[in-house]
Amino acid sequence: MRGIGQLAIDATAGMVGVVEAMHAAIGRQILPGTPAQAILAGATGAIYGGIRAITRSVGGGIDALLSPLSGAPGEAQSNPAREAMLAAINGILGDHLASTRNPLAIPMRLRHRGRPLHLERRRLKAAIPRGGGRLLVLAHGLCMNDLQWTRHGHNHGRALAADLGWTPVYLHYNTGLHVSTNGRAFAALLETLVDEWPERVRELAIVGHSSGGLLARSALHYGAAAGHRWPRLVRRLFFLGTPHHGSALERAGNWVNVMLNLTPYSSPLARIAGIRSAGITDLRYGNLVDEDWQGTDRFHHTGDRRRPLPLPKRVRCFAIAASADHRYRLDGRCGDGLVDVDSALGRHPDPSLHLSFSPSRQWVGRGMGHWDLLSHPEIYGRIREWIAS
What is the pTM of this model? Predict the structure, then answer.
């Protein structure tokens, strides 16, 4: 209640700003440079300022009232419906939630069977008493959570535990933050996991669905740069529908911003079109590191300015794409509804950005959508075959 109330107050203040900007734009066009326009601007500015002050006062009262009732962030009683709602809100507004310290912001943590893992040796042993030395870390995608790895009664992690003896742990995180911000935090989290794991970790594998694959690549980059131990334990890296070169949907969203800014009357509405988190705008081209987005307005239309980041060396990398078209051919460009096949397989006309997946380590599922990557028997069969090889 406290988090939703705070978000509603923020939304009210934001909409006041949009209306005020439209009012000012109309005034400038109708009465440009006249005394009447100056008087009108001063009067309306005072009115909108008063509305914002009242909104902040109400918000402060609600926050004070609910503060004694709220526990630690992320510790409320969980259920799948609530988890899905929070994941979606974090995916869309997660950077705003984090910057305003809203209780709805999801803290990054590893979980097992939907429960947070406390990364201390004794507590890990109690939480996963049969944990072995081969760890499988699964990273979900945008607007999702770790519970959604289970679909139609299937879970890749649990299936690999039963069939091949891997120990699965699941990342749960705020997908609205920049990929690089999450990547650096994920790297630190994995280092602690390896240090505190009750058994000697012999091998680490990561499965990333959608933008979770970008997060894995970012974490490997930052982990290696920091001299962490865990990147040397990674032998296999699986990408399921990962937009390595971005998503056409986010590029279309960026063009909406451009079109709205073409006239002074519609430009205030670009603020509404700009209600997209940093995690979403990173998907325009597939940003992985801070340098890919720093120093630019993420809502402006810019070209692909990514720093080339090849696949990690000495790691067997596997890419799975999906195509809704049963007739898909390898030279086609259709995709799974969210990510096109070329992006999922790392193909790019610029050789510096092209990802060199071995032909034997890439595969396209025909007649499948983006979510089928989580549960389709053919997808699991391919992962099982590759991880056992």
Answer: 0.79
Instruction: Report if residue 262 sits inside a domain.
Output: no
Give yes or no: residues 321 and 230 share one domain.
yes
Q: What is the mean pLDDT of residues 308-331?
A: 85
Q: What's the token pair of residue 337?
A: 């509804």
Q: Residue 30's domain spans which residues? A: 2-70
Considering 70, 100, 119, which residue would you say is the last residue of a domain?
70
Using alpha carbons, list the distances in angstroms from residue 158 to 72, 151, 155, 162.
29, 12, 5, 6
- pLDDT of 377 > 90? The answer is yes
Q: How many CB atoms lie under 10 A from the CB of residue 297?
A: 11
In a domain, 286, yes or no: no
The more confidently predicted of residues 142 and 50 is: 142
- Tokens 């809100």 belong to 89
User: Are 105 and 90 within 8 A, CB to CB?
Assistant: yes
Q: Which residues contact 38 (CB under 8 A, 6 or more apart)?
A: none
Query: Which sign, positive or negative, has the C-alpha torsion 243, 245, 248, 254?
Result: positive
Pairing mode, strands 203-209 and 167-172: unpaired
Closest CA to 317 of 286, 284, 363, 283: 363
Judgement on whether residues 101 and 178 belong to the same structural domain of the protein: yes
Strand, coil or helix: 151? strand
- As a whole number of angstroms, the distance between CA 372 and CA 370 comes to 6
For residue range 352-375, what is the model confidence (pLDDT) as tens digits?
999 999 999 999 999 999 999 999
Does 361 reside within a domain? Answer: yes
Q: 124: domain CATH number? A: 3.40.50.1820
